[in-house]
C-alpha cells in the first residue's frame, strides 16, 4: 500500500475501493478523502478509522486516485492542484478519459495509470483492465496493482487503445450476464415453468456455474464438454446456441457495438 493516498470521489466505486484498501492494510492516518457531499457511510467510516475527510491540506501524496464521474473532471481539476507532486502517481478509473485527457485537465499529472473496473469490484470481485503511461516506475505500477487488486482481478494492457475493448468485454460484461439470467428465465416460462420458479432457477444456475468456474482449474470450454453427453439434453440445446449465427456471433456483434460506443464517448 502507498505511503500516502488521496481518494477524490468516494461514491459507489471510490467508497468500495477505499473499504478494500483498508482491509488490505492501507494506513488510515496516511489517507485523505475528498468528496464535497460524502455519503453518511463514508463520513462514518472516515470518522471511525481516523481518515481525513475534505482536509484543508494540499500536501502532495504518493498516489491520487480519481473516482469522480467523468463529466465532473473539468470542475474538479482546479481543486486538485498541489496533490500531485513530481513523484506522485495518478490512478484514474474515469470511463473514457484517456491519459492525454487527464494530463490536459491536470497539468501536474506525470505518471498516470488508467483503469477500467466493473460493477463486481464493489464487492471485491471485479475484473479490471489497466494501462500505465510510459513514465510510471516499476514501484508505482506495483502500488497501482495492489490498489486495483483489492477490488478483484487485474489485467495489465500494453496499449491504451485496448481500453475500449476492455470496456466492451469486462466493463459492460456484468450486464450481459444479468441479461443471460433474464433470457434463461424467460425461456423457462416458455417451457412451462411458473415465472418465479424460472427466475429463481435461472439466477441460481448462473451464480452456481460462475462459482464452479471459479473453483475449477478447468477452462470454460472443458467444463462445458464435461456436462455435455453426446445425444443428450445439453447437447440438443448447445446445437442451437453454437450454430453459426448463435451466441458466439451475437456476442461478437454486441462487444463490437460496445467498443464502437466507447470510442464515440471518449474524450
Ligand atoms: N460504477 C461502476 O460500475 C463503474 C465501472 C467502471 C468505471 N467507473 C467509473 O468510476 C467513476 C465513479 O463512478 P461511481 O459509480 O462510483 O460514481 P458516483 O457514485 O457518482 O461517485 C462519484 C463521487 O464523486 C463525488 N464528487 C463529485 N464531484 C467531486 C469533486 N469535485 N471532488 C471530489 N468528489 C466529487 C460525487 O459526489 P456527488 O454525488 O455529490 O456528486 C460522488 O460521491 C466514474 O468515472 C466511472 O466512469 C464506474
What is the number of beta strands? 8
> Hey, roughly how much beta strand do the residues contain?
15-25%
Rg measurement, Å: 22 Å
* Count, helices: 11
Distance between the termini: 30 Å
List keywords for this structure.
267 residues, alpha/beta, ProC C-terminal domain-like fold, 2 domains, eight-stranded mixed beta sheet, binds NADP nicotinamide-adenine-dinucleotide phosphate
Helix and strand topology:
Layout: E1 5-8, H1 12-23, E2 31-34, H2 40-49, E3 52-53, E4 61-66, H3 73-76, E5 84-92, H4 99-105, E6 111-116, E7 126-132, H5 138-149, E8 152-156, H6 163-171, H7 173-190, H8 195-215, H9 220-226, H10 233-241, H11 247-265
Parallel strand pairs: 1-2, 1-4, 2-3, 4-5, 5-6, 7-8
Antiparallel strand pairs: 6-7
Helix pairs in contact: 6-11, 7-8
The structure holds NADP nicotinamide-adenine-dinucleotide phosphate (NAP).
NADP nicotinamide-adenine-dinucleotide phosphate binds next to helix 1 and helix 3.
Summarize the structure.
It contains 11 helices and 8 strands. It is of the alpha/beta class. It has 2 domains: 5-163, 3-Layer(aba) Sandwich (Rossmann fold); 173-265, Orthogonal Bundle (ProC C-terminal domain-like fold), CATH 1.10.3730.10.
Description:
The protein folds into two domains: 159 residues, Rossmann fold; 93 residues, ProC C-terminal domain-like fold (Orthogonal Bundle). 48% of the residues lie in helices and 16% in strands. The protein is built from eleven helices and eight strands. The chain has an eight-stranded mixed β-sheet with strand order 3-2-1-4-5-6-7-8. Helix 6 packs across helix 11 and helix 7 packs across helix 8. It is elongated. The model has no long low-confidence stretch (mean pLDDT 95). The chain binds NADP nicotinamide-adenine-dinucleotide phosphate. The site of NADP nicotinamide-adenine-dinucleotide phosphate (NAP) has 27 residues, from helix 1 and helix 3. NADP nicotinamide-adenine-dinucleotide phosphate (NAP) binds next to helix 1 and helix 3.
Amino acid at each position: 500500500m502507498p505511503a500516502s493516498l488521496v481518494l477524490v470521489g468516494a461514491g459507489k466505486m471510490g467508497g468500495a475501493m477505499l473499504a478494500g484498501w483498508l482491509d488490505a492494510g492501507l494506513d488510515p492516518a496516511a489517507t485523505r478523502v475528498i468528496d464535497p457531499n460524502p455519503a453518511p457511510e463514508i463520513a462514518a467510516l472516515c470518522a471511525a478509522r481516523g481518515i481525513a475527510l475534505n482536509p484543508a491540506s494540499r500536501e502532495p501524496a504518493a498516489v491520487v486516485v480519481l473516482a469522480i464521474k467523468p463529466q465532473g473532471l473539468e470542475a474538479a481539476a482546479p481543486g486538485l492542484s498541489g496533490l500531485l507532486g513530481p513523484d506522485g502517481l495518478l490512478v484514474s478509473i474515469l470511463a473514457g478519459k484517456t491519459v492525454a485527457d487527464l494530463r490536459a485537465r491536470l497539468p501536474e499529472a506525470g505518471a498516470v495509470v488508467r483503469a477500467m473496473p466493473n460493477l463486481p469490484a464493489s464487492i471485491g470481485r471485479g475484473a479490471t483492465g489497466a494501462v500505465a503511461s510510459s513514465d510510471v516506475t516499476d514501484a508505482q505500477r506495483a502500488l497501482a496493482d495492489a490498489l486495483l487488486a483489492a477490488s478483484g482481478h487485474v489485467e495489465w494492457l500494453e496499449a491504451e487503445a485496448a481500453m475500449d475493448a476492455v470496456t466492451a468485454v469486462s466493463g459492460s460484461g456484468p450486464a450481459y450476464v444479468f441479461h443471460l439470467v433474464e433470457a434463461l428465465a424467460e425461456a423457462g416460462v416458455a417451457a412451462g415453468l411458473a415465472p418465479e420458479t424460472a427466475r429463481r432457477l435461472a439466477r441460481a444456475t448462473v451464480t452456481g456455474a460462475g462459482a464452479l468456474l471459479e473453483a475449477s482449474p478447468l477452462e470454460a470450454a472443458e467444463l462445458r464438454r464435461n456436462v455435455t453427453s453426446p445425444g443428450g439434453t445439453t447437447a440438443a440445446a448447445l446445437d442451437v446456441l453454437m450454430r453459426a449465427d448463435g451466441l458466439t456471433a451475437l456476442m461478437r456483434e454486441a462487444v463490437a457495438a460496445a467498443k464502437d460506443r466507447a470510442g464515440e464517448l471518449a474524450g
